[in-house]
Automatic annotation (TrEMBL):
Lineage: Eukaryota, Viridiplantae, Streptophyta, Embryophyta, Tracheophyta
Location in the cell: Membrane
Protein's name in the database: Lysophospholipid acyltransferase 1-like
Keyword match Hydrolase: no
Assigned GO CC terms: endoplasmic reticulum; membrane
Transmembrane parts of this sequence: 12-35, 55-74, 86-106, 118-137, 158-176, 209-227, 264-285, 361-382, 394-421, 433-451
Main location: membrane
InterPro entries (UniProt xref): LPLAT_7/PORCN-like, MBOAT_fam
A biological process from GO: lipid modification
Molecular-function GO terms, alphabetical: acyltransferase activity
Keywords annotated in UniProt: Acyltransferase, Membrane, Transferase, Transmembrane, Transmembrane helix
Length: 465
């Protein structure tokens, strides 16, 4: 068996640990499919918990489940013992343990070299544990004054231990996401809410949406396998890179980032297929006549939305969507004081939490600080664009194209830090293009404080920007 694994890994150009992870990861699809046929609520929770723990063991070894047990135990204990502050306690304890694992394992170096460990799964699990505790904390608050997301996700009573473990480990979703809410997991398991057969007739078939996600995963893996030999990260430290001109270096940064993204597209497409086929991916019906089922609860990326993003402001809506939603609900919105509008502080704090969640490499920290600058600069261009009257359509379109070009340029520049991780390589790559992706957002932010257009009447869709 070991020899077969070695030969299989060599055939597709990955290490044996990565191949083992990929096999277990793909196995979440049939595991999720068979969940549908488990009778009764308690057996479903047991199945979710047992299969999740088994796949973790096969993928990462026995120690992985011990690591997962720590934040899960801390979160449940805080809910059980001190409900009024269980959310904030779990937040700091969960992140504290995750940071400790990041420091101990320094997984980023292994991931760059094709290695794998349980830290990535622990990252997803930490968010689920924290959100559960915060929602249980919110169950003490009166509905008046709560945001819609708080009203929807709050937990009035403490989930049982088996419900909690099943939520944390079900469908192998702790491998790579998506993050979802305890309230949705319970409704799905119990056949309530949108999963109730009495709501709008028979439950919709998930097979078409699952097939689409699988075809997308196959295409994304093919793209990654084709591109990665042509645009390796090692090129940034090779002498030939330094011999290139400015535009060729900038172009290579774009292609290196584009290549890396196809790997994430593949992983998230497999996750999407797994959650959809279980039924948990169902997110309601469209308003069309006749209504059609929506399957975007598990959607973590909009590929075309990322590659042709019109504004950096829209990136959280199309990239790592479920984690972006988590950060908005549990960090960004909760830092905004009543009666006040969010500003750059909330944005920077949210991006900092995201950076720490990914790991303590300088490249991560720099990337997410860069992201805050990038989004702030994009908002300036957007405000200018919206202030242009409809009669000046050409100017409006020019500013729109300017925002698109700005977003692509600064994103390509910024994501190099996310990929190479080390401070030396990050600063060397940024310096090779004269720090254009840092200087440009700062200039725009400063100009935005000088050139302040009037605020035109805006539609609801525009206000969301």
């Amino acid at each position: 068996m070991d020899l077969d694994m070695v030969s299989m890994a060599a055939a597709i150009g990955v290490s044996v640990p990565v191949l083992r992870f990929l096999l277990c990861f793909v196995a979440t699809i049939p595991v999720s499919f068979f969940w549908r046929f488990v009778p009764g609520r308690l057996p479903k929770h047991l199945y979710s918990a047992g299969t999740g723990a088994l796949l973790s063991y096969l993928s990462f070894g026995f120690s992985s489940n011990l690591h997962f047990l720590v934040p899960m135990s801390l979160g449940y204990a805080s809910m059980l013992l001190y409900r009024p502050r269980c959310g904030i306690i779990t937040f700091f304890l969960g992140f504290g343990y995750l940071i400790g694992c990041h420091v101990y394992y320094m997984s980023g170096d292994a991931w760059k070299e094709g290695g794998i460990d349980a830290t990535g799964a622990l990252m997803v699990l930490t968010l689920k544990v924290i959100s559960c505790a915060i929602n249980y904390n919110d169950g003490l608050l009166k509905e008046e004054g709560l945001r819609e997301s708080q009203k929807k996700n709050r937990l009035i009573k403490l989930p049982s231990l088996i419900e909690y473990v099943g939520y944390c480990l079900c469908c192998g979703s702790h491998f790579a996401g998506p993050v979802y809410e305890m309230k949705d997991y319970l409704d799905w398991t119990e056949g309530k809410g949108i999963w109730s057969t009495s709501a709008k007739g028979p439950f919709p078939s998930p097979y078409g949406a699952t097939l689409r996600a699988l075809l997308q995963a196959g295409f994304c893996m093919a793209m990654y396998m084709y591109l990665v030999p042509h645009f390796p990260l090692t090129r940034f430290t090779e002498p030939v890179y330094q011999e290139w001109g400015f535009w060729k270096r900038l172009g290579y940064q774009y292609m290196a980032g584009n290549t890396a993204r196809w790997k994430y597209y593949f992983i998230w497409s497999i996750s999407e297929a797994s959650i959809i086929i279980s039924g948990l991916g169902f997110s309601g019906w469209t308003e069309t006549s006749p209504p059609k089922p929506r399957w975007d609860r598990a959607k973590n990326v909009d590929i075309l939305g990322v590659e042709f993003v019109k504004s950096a402001v829209a990136l959280p809506l199309v990239w790592n969507i479920q984690v972006s939603t988590w950060l908005r609900h549990y960090v960004y919105d909760r830092l905004v004081q009543k009666g006040k509008k969010p500003g750059f502080f909330q944005l920077l704090a949210t991006q900092t939490v995201s950076a720490i969640w990914h790991g303590l490499y300088p490249g991560y920290i720099i990337f997410f600080v860069q992201s805050a600058l990038m989004i702030a600069g994009s908002r300036v261009i957007y405000r200018w664009q919206q202030a242009v009257p409809p009669s000046m359509a050409l100017v409006k379109n020019v500013l729109g194209f300017m925002n698109f070009a700005y977003s692509i340029l600064v994103l390509s520049y910024s994501c190099v830090g996310f990929m190479v991780l080390s401070l030396h390589e990050t600063m060397a790559s940024y310096g090779s293009v004269y720090y254009v992706g840092t200087i440009l957002p700062i200039v725009l932010i400063l100009l935005g404080n000088v050139i302040k257009p009037g605020k035109p009447a805006r539609s609801k869709t525009q206000k969301e920007q």
